Amino acid sequence: MSFELSVVMLCYGSGSRIHTFADKVAGLLDSSVPSWEMVLVGNYFEHSKDDTPRIVKEIASKRKNVKAVTLPKEGMMGWDARTGMDAASGKFICLIDGDEQMPPEDIIRVYKKIKDEKLDFVKTYRIKRHDSFVRRANSLIYNMIFALLFPGINVRDANSKPKIFTREAYRKMALVSDDWFIDAEMIIRARKLRLKVGEVATEFFKNRYRKSYVKIDAVFEFIKNLILARMREFLK
């Protein structure tokens, strides 16, 4: 079955908390989207005690338009995102984290913008943040260097979600990143393909349940990946 909108939710490590967020998203989609599916990505490390895979399967068993992706992990966030988006069948594909730091209403806002303005790709940018100083500093440095290395992108806050794109745009981007760099890769590929890109402002909340998976040294890894991506553009 083909849907108007597929919402791919990254649920790694969320456990039972994913119930609440998934229910909120489902309620919004029921009232705003003609047909939709939710893809709950609960990939896991083997021998882990994480019960997220069991929980997302349980949620999917109770709703015909919810599916669970639960695979032994072969990568990090980027790999999880790609396995979820590859499983999506919607005309539009929306990617969001399941940690409740992004308002679920943003899904509807990016969906309406991509439809109303006939765009290929829409993302949020965070104008108000309630997370840690480390996360804010990482993001500021990263986005400044991103803008310097890739002039003309004209987007803010590369890592902000939700992100939404048409199925055709997702196919053309041919994403390969297995780690956190997938957010930047989407924007770099959109720039190269000259996709029509839009943004909406959002507020980013503090994670109440766990510390961030993104550490202070992640900014150096991000910067290295940006430099390598820029070098590859020159070599082609």
Walk me through the structure.
Helix 5 runs parallel beside helix 8. The protein has eight helices and seven strands; from the N terminus they run βαβαβαβαβαβααβα. The chain is globular. It starts with a strand and ends with a helix. It has a seven-stranded mixed sheet with strand order 3-2-1-4-6-5-7, sandwiched between helices. The longest helix is centred in the C-terminal third of the chain and has 18 residues. Helix 1 links the parallel strand 1 and strand 2. It is of the alpha/beta class and 236 residues long. The protein has a single domain, classed as Alpha-Beta Complex (Spore Coat Polysaccharide Biosynthesis Protein SpsA, Chain A).
Provide a quick synopsis of the model:
This protein has helices at residues 18-32, 52-62, 77-87, 105-116, 133-149, 167-173, 182-193, 218-235; strands at residues 5-10, 36-41, 66-69, 92-97, 121-129, 163-166, 197-204. With 236 residues, it is α/β, with parallel strands linked by helices. It has a seven-stranded mixed sheet, sandwiched between helices.
**CATH H level: which superfamily?**
Spore Coat Polysaccharide Biosynthesis Protein SpsA, Chain A
The chain-level structural class is: alpha/beta
Q: How many separate helices?
A: 8
Global outline: globular
Distance between the termini: 39 Å
Second CATH tier, the architecture:
Alpha-Beta Complex
* CATH C-level category: Alpha Beta
Please report which band the strand proportion falls in: under 5%, 5-15%, 15-25%, 25-35%, 35-45% or over 45%.
Answer: 15-25%
From the alpha-carbon coordinates, what is the Rg to the nearest angstrom? Answer: 17 Å
Average pLDDT level = 90
